[in-house]
Design goal:
Blueprint: E1 2-9, H1 15-21, H2 27-36, E2 39-45, E3 50-57, H3 60-69, H4 71-80, H5 91-94, E4 96-98, H6 104-112
Antiparallel strand pairs: 1-3, 1-4, 2-3
Helix pairs in contact: 2-3
Length: 120
């Protein structure tokens, strides 16, 4: 399983409309996201329109290819594109990926395999 995080910038004057467009997302688009293999997908909105997204997937390349070929996703992304600043391409394909630097679950699992260090 791969964890994917990304960042986008929403035009601050369009934040309220962007939020409204996601409450709810089209059922057909939800189905396409699920069919692509993405799960545990969330979007978080910060000050000034900073958007952070996260999802889990087994094969992100395959998921991206699936969505890139989907007419439903193309229609959704065409409508969503106007909300973003400094974006070259479809939002689902051109978001800035973020590098994972810490994951609690992974570190706990790794530490269970390592003997405790001697504090003396």
């Amino acid at each position: 399983m791969t964890r994917v995080a990304f960042q986008l910038q929403i035009d601050p004057s369009l934040v309220d409309e962007y939020v409204a467009r996601h409450a709810p997302v089209w059922p057909e688009m939800l189905a396409e996201i699920a069919a692509s293999g993405r799960r545990n997908y969330s979007l978080f909105l910060g000050d000034g329109g900073r958007l952070f997204g996260y999802y889990e997937v087994d094969d992100d390349t395959a998921a991206q290819a699936y969505l890139a070929a989907s007419p439903v996703a193309a229609h959704w992304e065409a409508e969503m594109g106007r909300f973003f600043v400094g974006l070259d391409g479809r939002p689902d394909q051109a978001a800035t990926p973020l590098a994972e630097v810490f994951n609690l679950h992974d570190q706990l699992a790794d530490s269970a395999d390592v003997p405790e260090s001697d504090p003396s």
